[in-house]
Amino acid sequence: MSKLIVVVGSCMVDFISNVERLPKAGETVLGKEFKRSWGGKGANQCVAAAKLGASTTLIASLGLDIFGDEYFQALKSFNIDTKYIKLRKNISSGIAQIIVDDNGDNKIVIVPGANTLLSPADVDEAEDAVKKAAVLLAQFETSLKTTLRALELHKGHGISIVNGAPALANPDLNVLKNCDIFCVNETEAEVMSGIEPLTLKNTQEALNKFFKLGCNTVIITLGAEGAVFASRDNPKMVHVPVEKVKPVDTTGAGDAFLGALAYFIAYHPSLTLKEQIRRACHVAKESVLKAATQASFPMKEELSKELF
Ligand code: ATP
User: Fold this and answer.
1) Model-level pTM?
2) What local confidence, expressed as pLDDT, does residue 105 receive?
3) Inter-residue contact 296 to 259 (CB < 8 Å)
4) Structure ipTM over 0.85, yes or no
5) Which residue has its alpha carbon closest to ligand 1 atom 26?
6) Can you say whether the dihedral through the CA atoms of 198, 199, 205, 207 is positive or negative?
7) What b/e sequence results for 65-88 when a residue is b if at least 16 CB atoms lie within 10 Å of its CB, and e otherwise?
């Protein structure tokens, strides 16, 4: 049986400048340090699965520019199948300009660029891969029409997971209804369910709201508290705790969780969902102990053999 993981989603190039204090309108300040890193929830989740040794295909859209070309090569270096990544003319790659000050406050400008052109037709071109996927994974950073097309093609061929990030107050309900697993973090769950602040005590209420919206199985990640899940036909919430650690950098923890969850569903399909989530939480916990995003995701060799 195929173990392929197909991700339909975004690629973003992050430009991160560290400054003493954020500039006011019209002001120029001198920065202290600059880093360029690879991001975008689609690519991050695909890299997280690939670093665990999964066979992965990414359906994505980059600009035909210097950043798109470099990102494409970086994805190849993780053994990701890049056949369905389009490099598009006359549009920039998706970029995020991030300025962080000494207090950790930030200003961010996101230009989605080529990500906006990822279309249902791109998914149609990848039909063979989509239909072969043991797990199909998508997020809210690219067009929901494109995600919906992938879900339609994949129906009956494996497990589909949609990560509702970034939060949308009113997403297309067809996406929620047509995926097997819908996964959000605490903040996204608050925005979508209207239940705020979300605590372990009222998470069941939020889960019930998601079932009313048409979701099948729902996972909510809760940072150091691990995750909870429930299904429409078994709606009682199950809490999956994780060993709490003092994080170095939590950026991308959710992406590490989703890539790992896809891995454990594809490669260990006989485990219960609870155990697959427990293992994914463990991988995500390891990622928060290192700085950066994709670079913080653990490789299979760095993890305990018992996980595999
Ligand atoms: P981010 O937006 O920072 O990328 P997120 O908000 O989408 O992440 P979280 O719910 O914060 O995702 O974290 C995802 C998973 O990471 C959690 O379910 C948990 O397994 C792990 N995790 C995060 N923080 C901690 C922590 N302090 N200790 C242990 N595990 C953690």
Assistant:
1) 0.96
2) 87
3) no
4) yes
5) 224
6) positive
7) bebbeebbebbeebebbbebbbbb
pLDDT in tens, 234-290: 999 999 999 999 999 898 999 999 999 999 999 999 999 999 999 999 999 999 999
The 10s digit of each residue's pLDDT in 60-108 is: 999 999 999 999 999 999 999 999 999 999 999 999 999 999 988 889 8
Q: Is 41 in the pocket of ligand 1 (CB under 6 A)?
A: no
Q: How far is residue 165's CA from residue 184's CA, in Å, rounded to a whole number?
A: 7
Tell me how far apart the alpha carbons of residues 86 and 220 are, in angstroms, rounded to a whole number. 32
Q: Take atom 30 of ligand 1 and give the residue whose Cα is closest.
A: 285
Calculate how far, in angstroms, residue 145's C-alpha sits from the geometric centre of ligand 1.
Answer: 28
Strands 159-163 and 181-185: parallel
- Whether 253 is in the pocket of ligand 1, judged by its Cβ within 6 Å, is yes
d(CA 304, CA 83): 32
For residue 255, indicate whether it is catalytic. Answer: yes
SS3 (DSSP) at 158 = coil
Pocket lining: 223 vs ligand 1, CB cutoff 6 Å: yes
Which tokens go with 103? 């207090």
198 in contact with ligand 1, CB cutoff 6 A: no
Residue 209 reports pLDDT greater than 90? yes
